Amino acid sequence: MAGAPDESGPGSAAGEQLQQQHVACQVFPERLAQGNPQQGFLSSFFTNNQKCQLMLLKTLQTNPYVKLLLDAMKHSGCAVNKERHFSCEDCDGNVSGGFDASTSQIVLCQNNIGSQAHMNRVVTHELIHAFDHCRAHVHWFTDVRHLACSEVRAANLSGDCSLVNEIFRLHFGLKQHHQTCVRDRAILSILAVRNISKEVAQKAVDEVFESCFNDHEPFGRIPHNKTYARYAHRDFQNRDRYYSNI
Fold first, then answer.
1. pLDDT over 90 for what percent of the chain?
2. Higher confidence at residue 175 or residue 35?
3. Which own/partner contact pairs does 76-84 have at CB distance under 8 Å and 24+ positions apart?
4. Which of 28, 45, 189, 221 is the most buried (most CB within 10 A)?
5. What phi and psi values does residue 177 have, to the nearest 5 degrees?
6. pLDDT reading at 245 higher than 60
7. What is the DSSP letter of 109?
8. DSSP string over 57-104
């Protein structure tokens, strides 16, 4: 996902870090072959793991994007359990996290997630993949268009392309900039996890972009910031109550 801009001002270094850390929120093909590493008893005492667990707990309890997605997952019959569906692990390279479709588990790269804001974005991004996995038959590894669609939705709805994040990347001021950011982020995400050419990735994104960009479930709108996400969560809860009373 995106790097956290909390502690440093705009500049090329912050922009580069944000770009590098973006390759982080993907569907994990590598972990599929390796299996699911188990966390040992002593791992909770290591600084990175403890920090990851604490930041994750705060995200699950307080972030409006995540709270809505958790409610939507439960409503769709895929209730999320912190201990079962999240795993803090060390990861290679600049990866920040990923969704392991083989175990329906979100991997959080404890050695690369450096702040609460970064954790918020990674968890939101990956929960969108998990939500898509729950509600549809997504062929993550056999149909690149399915992956492209979920990456478009994750970039569009997670806040990764918010104005603040784009300013820190030194990207702003273009017409239809949000759409451009979403498209670019989706392509980068695909290239990070698939051994295909940029042209093939671009073609897949182009083929699904209009329908997937306009699919705002479960938010019902593009949540450009936390205030929009809170409104979306309120509307989702009211919609849920309405249908439960019919």
1. 60
2. 175
3. 76/131, 76/134, 76/135, 77/134, 78/104, 78/130, 78/131, 78/134, 80/127, 80/130, 82/56, 82/57
4. 189
5. -65, -35
6. no
7. E
8. HHHHHH-HHHHHHHHHHHHTT----HHHHEEEE--STT--EEEETTTT
The pLDDT tens digits of the residues spanning 35-72 come to: 444 555 554 455 889 999 999 999 999 999 999 999 99
DSSP 27: E
Cα distances (angstroms) measured from residue 195 to each of 133, 144, 162, 189, 201: 22, 11, 28, 12, 10
29 has a pLDDT exceeding 50: no
What's the chain's length in residues?
246
Distance CA 180, CA 185 (A): 9
In the chain, the N- to C-terminal Cα span, in Å, equals: 39
Which of 136, 137, 16, 129 lies closest to 69, judged by CA? 129
Per the prediction, the chain carries an average pLDDT of 81
Mean pLDDT in residue range 146-164: 90
CB 170 within 8 A of CB 13: no
Tell me, what's the pLDDT at 127? Answer: 98
| Dihedral sign computed on CA atoms, order 43, 46, 52, 54 | positive
Q: Which residues are catalytic?
A: 126
**Gap between the Cα atoms of 231 and 227, Å rounded:** 6
